[in-house]
Amino acid sequence: MELSPLLIDTHAHLDDERFAADFDLVLERAEAAGVRQMLCVGCDLESSRRSTELAARHEFLFASVGVHPHDASCLDDEALSELRTLATAERVVAIGEIGLDYFRNRSPREDQLRAFRRQIALAIELNLPIIVHDRDAHEDILAVLKEEQASRVGGVIHCFSGDIPMARACIEMGFYISLPGTLTYPKNEELRELARAIAVDHMLVETDCPYLAPQPHRGKRNEPAFVRHTAETLARLKGLSYEDVARVTSYNAHRLFGMGQGDQASRIAYPIRNSLYLNITNRCTNACIFCTKFKDFVVKGHELKLDHEPGFQEVLSAIGDPAPFEEIVFCGFGEPLIRLDLVKELAAWLKSKGKKVRVNTDGQASLLHGRDILPELSGLVDEISVSLNAPDAQTYQKLCRSRFAEEGFEAVKDFLRRAPAQIPLVTASAVTYPGVDIEACKALAHQLGVRFREREYNEVG
């Protein structure tokens, strides 16, 4: 079982004078709360200088440099040149915060737009991601990001305040959505609805301290330790554990900013919620067009690309003590029943430990091995979930691209039809990929005598 992951506060103004009196204690409280790293964000030349100085003095601090839209009128050629110099410091990982603020309008809008565009260009020149401030300027933010090709470097929309379509448009351009302590405010149901709708794989968490303290500390000075409240709230909204959210958002920060250690060596046993998943092969019978491994091998912060297929003892070592988990699931980025003998050996060991065993499969194992393999799983597997994904052979082959062509779909149906005689709980599933007739899949599953579950497209784990 993995150690409890630590959080990263991806947006903090630690150079603010409100931290001057107890700065060291603020850092100590952050460490005690499990916040391992913080990004000190610049919002003008002076704060950018201070942030880079803090990052240089503390190994767990990083910095960004930029001019906030409030000070956009000050971004002349000389200021931009200094930003370029500051951005070359070793622990500077982003340009920001930059963007547009049409709520306060402390700089004329034309100056804000000019400064935003110039700093995006600087980020592209230096190959650094951007940290975007957006307040009441959603349409112009999206337009400028597209026009300036900000997707070349990506970034984050900090303290996200847009709607779900905007979030998805930003994600399409390679941006993360960052959630602050306002997620915890009782009346902020709109932000919680957005958090439910967007995959955590595209999220970061932040404090924006000393501003926006979460509900338990509302009205007081915010600080990095309090980012845990946001992560815990996000976990409840997503039906995940706190450890899941901490791991995923920290991994996202590593991918975007290079923060964190990115400890993502090949994973054999990986926890999500109260289950432990076993990734024993990356080989598969299908090449499904909706499979996320064709983009990357990351699931809920776990890197699942194996450098070799593990043997029995190696998997046992990866599992460690299975006692804390409600179930053990054979489900990685591959078809586990390709390695049928290993599944049986491991399942027997797990049953001897009193654990519930589930297998997620594409249902073509009997065709693959040339025999009905279900009796071999009887008594070893408590539950099996079979990816049906289509109501007919032609659609199945179009979506799942089985190596067995249309014969594969017939094998899946036969597998589902036979499975209840050997496995206590059998479920057919279908991904809500555009064009998939979920109701027809459900009807077929019931015709075959098994339960049905739909799985959300682009939501893995």
Produce the secondary structure layout.
Layout: E1 7-12, H1 23-32, E2 35-41, H2 45-57, E3 61-65, H3 77-86, E4 92-101, H4 109-126, E5 130-135, H5 138-147, E6 155-157, H6 164-172, E7 175-179, H7 189-197, E8 203-205, H8 227-238, H9 242-257, E9 269-272, E10 275-278, E11 298-299, E12 302-303, H10 312-319, E13 327-330, H11 340-352, E14 356-361, H12 365-369, H13 374-377, E15 383-387, H14 393-400, H15 407-418, E16 425-431, H16 438-447, E17 451-455
Parallel strand pairs: 1-2, 2-3, 3-4, 4-5, 5-6, 6-7, 7-8, 10-13, 13-14, 14-15, 15-16, 16-17
Antiparallel strand pairs: 9-10, 11-12
Helix pairs in contact: 2-3, 8-9
Indicate the CATH topology of the largest domain: TIM Barrel
Q: Total number of helical segments?
A: 16
Q: Which spans have pLDDT < 50 for at least 5 consecutive residues?
A: none
Strand content: 15-25%
Overview of this protein structure:
With 461 residues, the protein is an alpha/beta fold. The chain folds into 2 domains: 7-257, TIM Barrel (Alpha-Beta Barrel), CATH 3.20.20.140; 269-455, TIM Barrel, CATH 3.20.20. It is built from 16 helices and 17 strands. The protein has helices at residues 23-32, 45-57, 77-86, 109-126, 138-147, 164-172, 189-197, 227-238, 242-257, 312-319, 340-352, 365-369, 374-377, 393-400, 407-418, 438-447; strands at 7-12, 35-41, 61-65, 92-101, 130-135, 155-157, 175-179, 203-205, 269-272, 275-278, 298-299, 302-303, 327-330, 356-361, 383-387, 425-431, 451-455. The strands form 3 sheets. An 8-stranded parallel sheet has the order 1-2-3-4-5-6-7-8. It has a 7-stranded mixed sheet with strand order 9-10-13-14-15-16-17. The longest helix is centred in the N-terminal third of the chain and has 18 residues, at 109-126. The model has no long low-confidence stretch (mean pLDDT 94).
